Amino acid sequence: MLDIGMPEFLLIAAIALVVIGPDKLPAVAKTLGRMFGELKKVTNEFKQTMESELKLNETNDIDEKEIIDKAEKINKQENYEIASKHDEDKNEIRDDSGCESENCLEKEPAKGTTKDERG
């Protein structure tokens, strides 16, 4: 963490003993230990929260991409089905009229018209 070796630690302890005094040193050490423990706990919770949020965002991005891809596929399938149904309807009209070419779907002359008007 701080990469303090034994000589540095002994020097810090000696200075703390002189500055704080032998009476208060155990209480201060206990308080500092609790503070560092709490700081470590909060740091770990923060890390876990950030990691879980990152994983959640990654899965949301993947889910959005998958949803968009699936929606596009469904849209293409629906368009194809509509187009093929439209073609089938045209073929049925041709089959029902007994005509095999596209041009024979011309209107028949209306009843009640004279022979000259029919053409």
If you had to describe this structure to a student in words, what would you say it looks like?
With 119 residues, the protein is mainly α. 77% of the residues lie in helices and 0% in strands. It has 3 helices and no strands. It is rod-shaped.
Topology of helices and strands:
Blueprint: H1 6-20, H2 25-97, H3 115-118
Gist?
This protein is mostly helical. It is built from three helices and no strands.
Count of alpha and pi helical runs = 3
End-to-end separation in angstroms reads 103 Å
Q: What's the rounded overall pLDDT mean?
A: 77
Determine the structural class based on helices, strands and strand pairing. mainly alpha
From N to C, what is the helix and strand string? HHH
Largest sheet, in brief, is: none
E-strand count: 0
The rough form would be described as rod-shaped
Low-confidence stretches: none
- Computed CA radius of gyration, to the nearest angstrom: 43 Å
Please state the oligomeric state of the protein chains shown. single chain
Helix content: over 70%
Strand content: under 5%
